[in-house]
Amino acid sequence: MYCFSITMRPFLRRLAYFMLLVSCALQKMAYADENLLGYTMGAETLPKGAKEVYLWYTQKEGKRNGQYQREEYRAEFEYGIANDLSGAVYVNGLSHNYHCGLGCAGSQAQGYEISGSRRKSDFSGISFELKKNLMSPYKDDFGLALYGEVTYTTRDRVTGHQGMGWEYETKVIFQKPFLDGQLQWLTNFELELESWKETAGEGTEWAVAPRLRTGVSYRFAPKWSLGVEGWVDKEYLKSANQTKWVYDHWDAFFGPSVHYGDRQWWFTASVVQQLAGSNEANNNRRGLHLADHEKKEFRLKLGYNF
Fold first, then answer.
1. pTM of this prediction?
2. Which pLDDT does position 264 carry in this prediction?
3. CA 212 to CA 214: how far, in whole Å?
């Protein structure tokens, strides 16, 4: 069963009220290129000259020990550069609320990770994105797109510690419609490269993660769709005092989503849970990986055109 902490409920009430006000104010907006799933991207781009604003909220919670909750915020502005090319800029934020004591992850023998307590919200960086559509799922009956994103970050996502890092993410996006477009199958092949140097630390750590995401979305009523999606990834690290890349962990997530798309605006809500991963507290044997990831995630995305 999927469940959420009590601390999230006041935020969701405020967000629901905000969405109601926005929907009332945007009755004259044009149709938006909405996201059918919360994590797996579709192949379509905005038409030339079209503009869209996205608001993202993601909550992640549950470590091996202690109490851990993290919220991620993104405000995105996307613009249609050409009919098959769009670009976007993001402003990113983080909010941490954890009480880990000696450590929320890992084992005593290996050294506990994510220690101490933190209750703070921070600006965490900016991102830039380009997305190129090569084939349209609606015109060509098969969608293909290329995606690239660069992020400058000032906070460690897991701990909230200050530092400086860069993230480079690439995707090859596939989308196949079935049943006259009523059913959509989306798949993303991703490769992510990260660098990070903590202000209080020494040297730069590098990480590379290949990832496969896939999911389906079924339109069961006008404007409404239900979907499921999941992904699996691996991560390799090279720390400041190492000359070779070493295997760090793998993990797999899965969960449902619901999507509503009007001509004026759309939203997508997704819940995913970690199904399996390498247990960092038990010599990376199969279990759950709870050092870099959490037990469950909730994501809400809201978009509107103008």
1. 0.86
2. 83
3. 7
